[in-house]
Amino acid sequence: MRILIWHVHGSWTTAFVHGRHDYLLPTTPERGPDGLGRARTWDWPSAAREVSSEALADEDVDLVVLQRPHEVELAEKWLGGRRPGRDLPAVYLEHNTPAGAVPDTRHPMAGGRIPIVHVTGFNDLVWDCDGTPTTVIEHGIVDPGRRYTGDIERAGVVVNDPVRRGRSVGADLIPGLAEGVGADVFGMRVDRLPPHRGLRTFEDLPQQDLHDHLPRRRVYVHLNRWTSLGLSLLEAMHLGMPVVALATTETPLAVPHEAGFVTTRRDEIVPAVRHLMKDPDVAEEAGLIGRRYARKRYGLERFLDEWDDVLRWVATDSVR
C-alpha cells in the first residue's frame, strides 16, 4: 500500500515506517507541523518518502492515516479533492489521553465513519467515541539493544517541553528528584527548566546519541501523570534500564513489578531510586527483567502485524 501519513510523533512513526508499505510524508517549504517530512534525528528506511504538499494531488494514495482532526480537511485540499473516509480509505490514530472532562470527553472523530486506533487500552476506555469502531494497537519499538551500564549514579528522565506541559508530565516533581538523587533530563526544550541543585539538562539529542547516553544513568524515572504511555519509558526498558514510574494511565500494565518500582506516592519516588542506586546488581537484574518483558509485549513485529491487519480491514471495508 501507499500510505499518506504526517510526521507528528517521531518515535511512533519510526516504528510504523519500518513496515511493509510505501509511506508518503508531506513537506511544506517552512517544514512546519504539517510538513516536517522525514525525521532528522531518527533512522528511517527509504520506503518513507517525502512528497511536497503541491505534488500530493498527483500521487496514487491507497490509504490515509490521520492523527489530528484538521488533517481530514488538509488531506482533501492537498489530494485534489479526495476526502479521507469518503473517497479514500482512512483510519484515525489517537496517540493521547483526553484533555477534557474525563471520563466524558467526546473524541473529535466520534460518530463518524473513520475507525479510530488507540495506542493503549486505557485510552480506548476513557475516550467517548460514541459508537465509532475502535481498536487498540499497542506501541512497537525498534529494539536499540541492551546498552545499560548504570555507571553514572544519577536518575535519567526523558521529557519533551516540560515547562509548557507542566504537571501532566510531572515537571513539578523534577526539582525534588534532582535534589534527592541528582537528575539528568533529556529532551526537547528541557533547557527551559529553571536551574536547580542537582539538575542537568541535555537538549534534543539525536536518538542514537540518546540511546548511548541515557543508559549510563543508574535508573530511569518516568514522572508522567496524565499522558499516553510514553515511548521513552518503553525505550528505556529496551535499553535494559531499571525503572521507577508513576502508576498512572497505562504504566502499571507496561512495567512489571520486578522491573523496578511503580507508585502513586510522591514520597516513595526518591527512596525507590536510592534503593536501586545503592545496589547495582539489583538494578541490573531489574533492567534485564524489564527488557525481556518490553521486547515481548512491545516488539516491532507484533506491532507491524497488527497494523497490517487493520490496514487490510480498513481498505477492504471501504470498497464494499
Provide a concise account of the structure shown:
This protein has about 325 residues and is α/β, with parallel strands linked by helices. Helices cover about 30% and strands about 20% of the residues. Helix 2 links the parallel strand 4 and strand 5 (about 90-95).
Features:
single chain; 320 residues; alpha/beta; Rossmann fold; seven-stranded parallel sheet; six-stranded parallel sheet; 11 helices
Task: Walk me through what this model shows.
The protein is built from 11 helices and 13 strands. The protein has 320 residues and is α/β, with parallel strands linked by helices. The chain folds into 2 domains: 2-140 and 300-318, 3-Layer(aba) Sandwich (Rossmann fold), CATH 3.40.50.2000; 152-297, Glycogen Phosphorylase B (Rossmann fold), CATH 3.40.50.2000. The protein has a 7-stranded parallel sheet. α7 links the parallel β11 and β12 (243-246). It starts with a strand and ends with a helix.
Give the helix/strand layout:
Layout (H helix, E strand, L loop, with lengths): L1 E4 L4 H7 L5 E6 L20 E5 L10 E4 L4 H8 L11 E5 L21 E3 L2 H6 L7 E3 L15 E7 L3 H4 L8 H8 L1 E5 L11 E5 L3 H7 L3 E6 L8 H8 L4 E4 L4 H4 L5 E4 L5 H10 L1 H18 L2 H19 L2
Parallel strand pairs: 1-2, 1-4, 2-3, 4-5, 5-6, 6-7, 8-9, 8-11, 9-10, 11-12, 12-13
Helix pairs in contact: 5-9, 7-10
